[in-house]
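Appendix B, example 12.
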Amino acid sequence: MIARRKRGTVAPETPARHVAQWLRRLESERRCSAHTLAAYRRDLEEFIGSIPEGTDLQQVGTSQVREHVAALHRRGLAPRTLQRKLSAIRSFFAACIEEGLLHCNPAAEVRAPRSPRKLPQTLDPDQVSRLLEIQGNDPLTLRDRAMMELLYSSGLRLSELVGCNLGDIDLAQGLVRVTGKGRKTREIPVGSKARDALRDWIRVRSALAAEGEQAMFLGRRGRRLHPRTVQQRLRAWQVRQGLSARLHPHLFRHSFANHLLESSGELRAVQELLGHADISTTQIYTHLDYQHLAKVYDQAHPRARKKD
């Protein structure tokens, strides 16, 4: 718990003291990872260093938070980095309010510069076809083909793919059950090509599987496949199949969403399939669809085509 001032004591209510208390609480009660704790500590110590030494916790105001963010911006930090640092400050003060140490959050009204939203890269259908026409019947090739088919067929995140168990896929019904962000479970259709590839892999999976292992996709030692291994295998196939685009798991998810939206125009359906909590996250694919339409227009319309 964040320490309160006890009656009869004169404990200094400095931000640094309460930051240390809060970080210990995150580690012991919320089981935050070492990476997350280190990032919080670094960002909060940087903020504390920007205010006058000996400043009481209750004396920290919105102007000091805003000046700190402005100073970081002048140093050339990217908007995304500023947003992360501001989020750490905001979370700390929110915890202080929960403990009754503050009445308002001095970082609540401070906003970091907005970062330009990059449109996701996608593969076109011809590239997907070329990539998935891989030859070979050895177990690892069959596993990789099944993984890539499932990634593209159902738009899974990397964590959802490696977390998939044998019982999560119903080949007869053509469904896969995954647990996504926020531990939300959803069922997604699995296409016929992906079902065929999964059947081929399952037939040889037992030759690799360690005793009692329920993971769908296995490494050489018969245990659940590590996310890093998936990334490495995709890059290897990128080279083998002669693709210029850098191949990574989310590229399949972006391609799945974009191709589905181009064909159906059903934004809500794509949102459900992707497991997005907010439809604004899904709407980025409408910009890709617009780019595609604009390109077709420029190439086809008599008044848009440039003269030779």
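The radius of gyration is 25 Å. The mean pLDDT is 84.
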